[in-house]
Amino acid sequence: MTMTTITRLAGASGLALLLTACMDVSMSVDVLSETDAEATMVTSMAADMVELMNAQAEAGDEEFCAEGEVIENGDMIDCVVVESGPFAELDFDSEEGQGPVIEAIGGGQVRVTFPTGDLAESLDESMGDDQDPQMQAMITSMFEGHAITIAVTGGTILDTNMEISADGMSASYEIPFVDLFAATLDIPEEIYAVVQK
């Protein structure tokens, strides 16, 4: 599930599901070398919503975790998708073109970029310009405390617009769903980090 998949869930057909999904999404890239990386995406969703999503899949919608490992975690179900290998072979759901871009930029440095420019725009389009205040309150209630978290690890972080850890070996960026839906979050066109290998 990439960022585009998340915004697609916010469309008219998936809005009711999304409102009660209480989901968290984390995307992380571990730079293994100047040529290889491992990317992990974890989507956590309430178990009853997973059942509803899979029931809708019979009507042609996307099944929850169709290509990942399902891990039951109490009332929540995690979908874990891991890809590893050379940068060029990591497709990141490439037909949607919204996965991270990883490239060696010389001197043992690797740049990891997450395109985010379309995320807020896609949500605005799917939610519509005239948002019902009751709907907005419902969204706020259901998604309070849930977020999309992006992280890069694998070496010293040389340059980033993310938050660098105390040891300087990782960077992360959190996008709260509530702020995203309320359009109160100023998200950069891209979120990036440069790792020294």
Describe the fold and architecture.
With 197 residues, this protein is α+β, with helices and mostly antiparallel strands. The protein has one domain. The protein has six helices and eleven strands. The protein has helices at residues 3-9, 15-19, 47-57, 117-127, 133-143, 177-182, and strands at 24-31, 36-46, 69-73, 76-86, 101-106, 109-115, 147-153, 156-160, 163-164, 170-176, 190-196. The strands form two sheets. The chain has a seven-stranded mixed β-sheet. It has a four-stranded antiparallel β-sheet with strand order 5-6-11-8, with no helix packed on it. Strand 5 and strand 6 (109-115) form a beta hairpin. Helix 1 (3-9) packs parallel to helix 4.
List the helices and strands and how they pair.
Blueprint: H1 3-9, H2 15-19, E1 24-31, E2 36-46, H3 47-57, E3 69-73, E4 76-86, E5 101-106, E6 109-115, H4 117-127, H5 133-143, E7 147-153, E8 156-160, E9 163-164, E10 170-176, H6 177-182, E11 190-196
Parallel strand pairs: 1-7
Antiparallel strand pairs: 1-2, 2-4, 3-4, 5-6, 6-11, 7-10, 8-11, 9-10
